[in-house]
Amino acid sequence: MELIHQGKVRDVYADGGDLILVASDRVSVYDVVLPTPIPGKGALLTALSLWWFEQLADIVPNHIVSVEDVPAEFAGRAVRVKRLDMVKVEAVVRGYLTGSGLAEYEKRGSVCGIDLPAGLVDGSKLPEPIYTPTSKADVGDHDLPMTFAETEDALGTDLATRVRDLTMSVYRRGSEIALEKGIIIADTKLEFGIDAEGTLRLADEVLTSDSSRFWDAAAWDPGKSQASFDKQFVRDWAKSTGWRPDDAVAPEIPQDIVDATLARYIEAYELLTGRRWS
Ligand code: ATP
Ligand code: MG
């Protein structure tokens, strides 16, 4: 198989007309891959995405072709998918305010051109979920916020609207399901692509601890950073070392942080799916 793309987390191979997406154990923070892997993370994210694709199948078609028909060496962390023409927008939706959305709000009172009420703090629930798309940057670049109008210019009004509406539907359904299991999905990023027949499909990974912020609903307490089952833990640790994303060398992750990160990913998987991770 030909390696056609190495993303921060996934290796992408071409196989016939399909792609094989292999999720590695790499972890990236602020678009920088850290030198230490989180063993088992690739398999966890693959399993969680597959579970979500099934839950969401009546809302949106997805790119999965087969879970079994992948090279044995990648079994468990690879999927065979339709090769799609990827939509050049990352479809971000936020139900709660934090991270880069919060930073933008504090500067301007708005996020991606959407005005928000005064007085919101880190972790506030938004009156309504908002669509805050970004560009899809090339390797080494950062994704930049876009207004909906800018996505219309980039994709055409019809496609931009379908991507936005599907994103909101996936978020509403996903966050409803997650909340029943005690998890708030604060925000998430979806990717879409178009197949050879012209069908718009959900691609990449969906509602995982890498692509979303998962918070403990029972501990939710706006005004500070929230207890989370996601990458935020690694982000916070990386920052606490004094490292900055522009520094040449990223720090090795100590074993206790690797273990605690993995424990969070496993907890999210088990809570959401109701299955035991082994
Ligand atoms: P990000 O961190 O934003 O996800 P990345 O490019 O580093 O960026 P990876 O998840 O590591 O992401 O790599 C997966 C790549 O494969 C992404 O570029 C994604 O857009 C692409 N991709 C996912 N599904 C498909 C598909 N069905 N057809 C074509 N490309 C796909
Ligand atoms: Mg990705």
UniProtKB/TrEMBL annotation:
GO MF assignments: phosphoribosylaminoimidazolesuccinocarboxamide synthase activity
Top EC class for this record: ligase
UniProt keyword list: ATP-binding, Ligase, Nucleotide-binding, Purine biosynthesis
Reaction(s) catalysed by this chain's protein: 5-amino-1-(5-phospho-D-ribosyl)imidazole-4-carboxylate + L-aspartate + ATP = (2S)-2-[5-amino-1-(5-phospho-beta-D-ribosyl)imidazole-4-carboxamido]succinate + ADP + phosphate + 2 H(+)
Domain of life, per lineage: Bacteria
Pathway, per record: Purine metabolism; IMP biosynthesis via de novo pathway; 5-amino-1-(5-phospho-D-ribosyl)imidazole-4-carboxamide from 5-amino-1-(5-phospho-D-ribosyl)imidazole-4-carboxylate: step 1/2
Domain SAICAR synthetase/ADE2 N-terminal, first and last residues per copy: 4-242
InterPro entries: SAICAR_synt/ADE2_N, SAICAR_synth, SAICAR_synthetase_CS
EC number(s) from the headed UniProt entry: 6.3.2.6
Pfam families according to UniProt: SAICAR_synt (PF01259)
Annotated family: Belongs to the SAICAR synthetase family.
HAMAP family registered for this protein in UniProt: SAICAR_synth
Name recorded for this polypeptide: Phosphoribosylaminoimidazole-succinocarboxamide synthase
The organism of origin for this protein: Glycomyces rhizosphaerae
UniProt gene name: purC
